[in-house]
Design a protein that fits this description.
The complex is a heterodimer of chains A (about 475) and B (about 650). Chain A contains 21 helices and two strands. In chain A, strands 1-2 form a two-stranded antiparallel ribbon. Chain A is globular.
């Protein structure tokens, strides 16, 4: 294998290089800043994210281009996912700022690690070789482990980080093992070559390939949080500081979706009849366990963790059809999901204040009496997660179900709808609590203005895009070359 | 053009939002809504001039595509032709008058802003309904006016009877709307489109004409007849046709301006408008037309009879509305769609006038509505008196007044259908003819009891009797003008000219332009005709019974005890519906609740699921131990299962 390197590669990688440089620069500057100037770190980080997003937009590729000796690919799907990831991280930083300040965690680490995690996501999104995939994944994961542990004095955070790290290491090991088997059979790391190899008629290698495939999928399932590789999700979501949970639950899901696409759709499309049945099993388990167990939770972060598991089940429904329409539907789903998750955790931050974490479901009781507007926003988020029209979440569910029906998997669509109905219970319970229960805590909200504006916009976007769902859907279809 | 049309529709909506959702003062609330509807009215006049008078022809454009699903497009669009333009002018004019009148009528009501918001919202909905160019938007407007009607009947929501009435109106309309939405579904299924243009063109080419469906085994139905009847079921609900008429009299629980606007002049005529709009479909089904004819005739005659025994001033007018809606329906059933619309228009003016006049009386009487407590109001309220007289004469069809031309045309059309031997036309003809006598009798019974004769109110009320303020009387005068003129000025183009060409389709003309020799000759001719003499007989009877010899009605009531009792009970429909449908469904519901809900769903499913979830989560809680090695073990187990199932198999 020879590596070649041309100047055009640099322009293709410009956003990633910029992000890396800026992240290092921020790290260096932050080390010399006194605590009262910490805002500069925040502003630098925000500037970096927005600037990188603009760069991605400016270099938006019309068709897939590979760079760095086929290690890296730049395509429309990747660009859209990157722009969304960058913006979502930016909003997550905005939400987190006040929360971190109140808890004396407003340090450079959160933002610098966040930037590195974002770089990891971008590399995963654009990966075109098993090696780059792994590289991006580890960069993201290591940053996340550290972010979870950032609140050193909190026992639950340390414990969560420890669990996350150990389990993540096992999952990475499995992924790597699966990749090595694939490499052993096909003798290539490059995804295109891999796909070409698999398209030739196979005879005796199929069992080996399947063996590798199962290990790869286990690694993927862990990253997504699909049952039965979900155990870390509730503990980490609950244990981590809300600002970090917010971060973990939103943008990295886009990267995990990209991972799924790169590996299964780009690399292993030829094996789709095999991975389809595995994904069906995983998605049913995820929808069932996620939705059923979420009902029993009293902690909102934990409930949202199980809700995430359920959403991952729905997300996989589109991918497992192995059609372009299905991929687009899943992409639509993951974009919508990250927006909703961002808003939901943002609401927890909005209701929290110094010395008080609004992380129990009962903390939302009577929110309508305290603040009708934010009760309304939270209702939009919850109804959207439950999939009630005309919210965006409804269209997301509808589009994956549609694809299932088109792929002839009607029974699976019916199962998915049944679990969605069960799931609606705990989202609607939130709405009911906000409007029909008496508030236990009647103190006014103390959040900053920027947080208030951003979260209102977040909720309204979900409502308004729900009125015109075609825009986002057309975008998703377009990036996959349909429509 | 599109901007003008959008302004017409959105100006009232804007007013409704401002008055309803923002904490504005009374002055702002009525200014913005009256301004909005006034703007709509003048723009409607302009549109009327542009489309009809200047002959620019129909406007048919889609404004916005809401969603596309397969080959179904759900769109917002406007179809403006002569029919629509006429309806727009009538709706906005009456609505505007009612807005102004409300300033006086609702002066002391705490829900002032809410009221203005609702009636503006109603105007918006009604305009959406009439201006639509597709079935879906029609349905939107249809349901929206129904919603506002519901809200307004129950406007005084602390009054139990009002809540009862609005629930009743809502439920009865549900029955009609159920048929309506099935009809729309039928159109979509057999014509593959919801656009008027497309559907009517296909219908005109004979599409779906000979398709038969079997709904009850053994009976074949023509699809078109079925669709027409289902759509008409919606019209029966909205336009309060027998046997779905029961909600309209009760709707008088709402404030009087609403009775005038919604439950007399505009909303209830939506059904008439709809059938006229769908004339290309209805013309294809003789059976559907016959059914319409008979339903209309029953409503026209029998609902009029009920007006004879009512003592609440608004209820008398309400039954008269029912009867007049029956007349319009008869016109539709006789294929004389233009005549139906013509009567719709004249009726809108004089019925709104009568209602607003009744409201004026009610204000003066300090919200006492019983006509037995009135009498001799003529000298206290001259403007109300004279305008009421105009309205009543128009209603009974006195030659020269608006109602004369339209009602005579309807009777003529029924006669024409009779000659053509359309099934049921014979009954319809005699029903509408004898209806004339009844109309005159109940109208002038009320008129004489209210304005003439002995003053029967108590001392206190009499001392405070005086004419109502200008905001109340001005709309009366404004409405009195078209109540006189609207008939004679428009009959020529509407019935004998080419006004509705392209908008309304009839297989054969009902009226021959050759036979028309001008308004005057028609009036003179009318003097020699049966309807006129029937009306005069009714008027005379009313005069004799209620002014000359007021003791007689009691004797008659005694003498005809059983028929009188039947009329008082409104033929028993209300009781029947309440006992069988309302009571029956309540019982069924109760049974479902007891066995289905409490035992099966709550007991087994809900509590059962809850128990299962509890069990499940207790199991999962054991799995989710918090111990790292358990988690890792679960992962390895998962891997092993996947390997076992998918690789080794």
């Amino acid at each position: 294998m020879t590596f070649t390197f041309t100047p055009t590669d640099l322009t293709i990688l410009l956003p990633e290089i910029t992000l890396l440089t800026m992240a290092c620069l921020t790290l260096a500057i932050d080390a010399y800043l006194p605590q009262n100037m910490r805002n500069l770190t925040y502003q630098l980080a925000q500037g970096t994210l927005i600037g990188t997003a603009l760069l991605v937009f400016a270099t938006y590729p019309q068709q897939p281009t590979v760079a760095m000796s086929n290690m890296f690919v730049s395509d429309p799907m990747g660009a859209v996912l990157k722009i969304f990831a960058l913006l979502i991280v930016a909003v997550a930083f905005l939400y987190s700022k006040g929360y971190l300040q109140d808890r004396r965690m407003f340090k450079g680490e959160y933002f610098v690690l966040g930037l590195f995690a974002t770089l990891g996501m971008m590399i995963m999104i654009s990966a075109h070789s098993l090696l780059t995939i792994y590289l991006g994944l580890e960069l993201l994961s290591l940053s996340l482990y550290t972010m979870v542990a950032m609140h050193r004095d909190s026992q639950s955070a340390t414990e969560a980080a420890m669990k996350y790290f150990v389990l993540g290491a096992i999952a990475s090991g499995m992924l790597l093992y699966g990749m090595s088997i694939l490499y052993g059979v096909t003798n290539t790391l490059d995804l295109t070559t891999l796909a070409q190899y698999l398209n030739q008629p196979q005879s005796d290698n199929h069992t080996f390939l399947l063996f590798g495939l199962v290990f790869v999928i286990v690694g993927l399932a862990f990253k997504l949080g699909a049952v039965p590789f979900h155990m870390w999700v509730p503990d980490v979501y609950q244990g981590a500081p809300t600002a970090v949970t917010l971060f973990i639950s939103s943008a990295p899901k886009l990267a995990a979706f990209a991972l799924l696409m790169r590996l299964l759709a780009d690399g292993l499309q030829a094996l789709h009849s095999d991975w389809q049945s595995i994904l069906i099993l995983l998605s049913i388990l995820s929808m069932a366990l996620g939705n059923l167990v979420a009902i029993a939770q009293t902690n909102l972060k934990r409930m949202l963790a199980y809700s995430t598991i359920a959403h991952v089940g729905y997300l996989m429904l589109g991918v497992l059809t192995a059609t372009k329409g299905g991929y687009a539907a899943s992409m639509f789903y993951v974009l919508v999901y990250s927006l909703m998750s961002l808003g939901a955790f943002g609401m927890i931050i909005l209701l929290s204040r110094a010395g008080f974490e609004a992380e129990n479901i009962s903390d939302f009781k009577g929110l309508n009496d305290r603040s009708p507007w934010y009760a309304f926003i939270m209702s939009i988020l919850m109804l959207s997660m439950a999939g009630v029209p005309p919210m965006l979440g409804f269209w997301a569910k509808l589009s994956v179900l549609n694809q299932l029906v088109e792929a002839g998997l009607v029974w699976l669509a019916v199962v998915a709808v049944l679990f969605a109905i069960i799931g609606a219970f705990y989202y609607l319970r939130m709405v009911w609590m906000m409007y029909f229960e008496k508030a236990q805590d009647t103190s006014p909200l103390q959040a900053n203005m920027d947080l208030r504006v951003a979260i209102s916009a977040n909720g309204l976007v979900i409502l308004l895009l729900g009125m015109a769902p075609n825009m986002l859907m057309t975008l998703c279809l377009g990036t996959l070359g349909i429509g | 053009m599109q901007n003008i049309l959008l302004t017409i529709v959105l100006a009232p909506l804007f007013g409704a939002i401002i008055a309803g959702l923002f904490p504005v003062s009374r002055r702002v609330a009525h200014t913005v809504t009256i301004g909005g509807v006034g703007l709509s009215f003048f723009l409607s006049l302009y549109v009327f001039k542009y489309i009809v008078l200047n002959g620019h022809g129909p406007y048919n454009e889609t404004v916005y595509t809401w969603l596309t699903s397969g080959n179904i497009n759900i769109q917002v669009g406007f179809l403006i032709d002569s029919l629509t333009a006429l309806m727009m002018v009538v709706v906005t004019f009456v609505s505007w008058m009612v807005h102004i009148y409300t300033v006086g009528y609702m002066r002391d009501d705490p829900g002032y802003q809410r009221f203005f918001s609702y009636i503006s919202l109603f105007t918006f909905s009604m305009l959406m309904l009439v201006m639509s160019n597709n079935f879906m938007q029609l349905f939107f407007g249809w349901e929206a006016v129904g919603l506002v009607s519901y809200l307004l009947i129950g406007f005084w929501y602390t009054k139990e009877s009002a809540i009862f009435a609005n629930l009743k109106a809502f439920l009865v309309n549900r029955v009609g709307d159920f048929g309506f939405v099935l009809g729309i579904a039928g159109v979509l299924m057999y014509f593959g489109s919801l656009d008027y243009d497309h559907v009517f063109k296909l219908a005109g080419e004979g599409h779906a004409k000979d398709v038969l469906v079997q709904i009850i085994p053994g009976y074949q139905w023509s699809v078109l007849t079925l669709i027409c009847l289902l759509l008409f079921m919606g019209a029966m609900g909205k336009s309060a046709q027998f046997p779905l008429h029961v909600w309209l009299p009760d709707s008088m629980e709402g404030p009087t301006p609403i009775s005038a606007l919604i439950h007399a002049a505009t909303m209830v005529t939506a059904g008439i408008f709809m059938v006229a709009r769908m004339s290309p479909l209805y013309e294809m089904s003789e059976t559907a037309l016959s059914v319409i004819l008979v339903i209309g005739a029953i409503t026209a005659l029998f609902m009029g009879l009920l007006g004879l025994v009512q003592n609440d001033i608004k209820r008398v007018v309400a039954y008269s509305t029912l009867s007049q809606l029956g007349y319009m329906t008869v016109a539709l059933g006789a294929s004389a769609y233009a005549t139906g619309i013509f009567h719709l228009m004249t009726h809108a003016f004089f019925k709104a006038l009568l209602f607003l006049a009744a409201g004026s009386v009610i204000i003066a009487m300090h919200h006492d509505q019983d006509i037995r407590n009135m009498g001799g109001l003529k000298k206290y309220m001259p403007i109300t008196y004279w305008t009421s007289l105009i309205g009543s004469l128009a209603l009974i069809g006195f030659p020269g007044f608006a109602g004369f031309f339209s009602k005579d045309a309807i009777i003529e059309a029924a006669h024409h259908a009779y000659e053509l031997q359309r099934p049921g036309a014979c009954f319809a003809y005699y029903a509408v003819l004898s209806g004339v006598f009844i109309t005159a009798l109940y109208s002038f019974r009320m008129f004489f009891l209210v304005f003439h004769g002995k003053e029967r109110m108590d001392e206190h009320t009499r001392e405070h009797l005086h004419e109502t303020p200008a905001v109340v009387t001005l709309p009366l005068i404004m409405l009195a003008i078209p109540s006189v003129l609207a008939g004679m000025l428009t009959i020529q183009p509407l019935l004998f000219g080419h006004f509705f060409d392209g908008a309304i389709f009839a297989a054969h003309a009902v009226f021959d332009p050759e036979e028309y020799h001008g308004v005057l000759s028609m009036m003179v001719h009318g003097l020699t005709q049966l309807p006129f003499w029937f009306a005069m007989a009714g008027l005379g009877t009313a005069y004799y019974l209620y002014l000359v010899n007021p003791a007689i009605p009691k004797v008659i009531a005694q003498y005809l005890k059983i028929p009188h009792q039947i009329l008082l009970n409104k033929y028993g429909f209300d009781d029947f519906y309440q006992a069988i449908f309302a009571g029956g469904t309540r019982d069924i519901g109760k049974n479902f609740w007891k066995t289905g809900d409490v035992k099966l769903i709550d007991g087994m499913l809900v509590n059962g699921t809850a128990a299962m979830v509890a069990f499940f989560s207790s199991v999962v809680r054991h799995l989710q131990t918090g111990y790292l090695y358990h988690y890792a073990f679960a992962m390895i187990l998962g891997l092993a299962v996947l390997l076992g199932v998918f690789v080794l198999n």
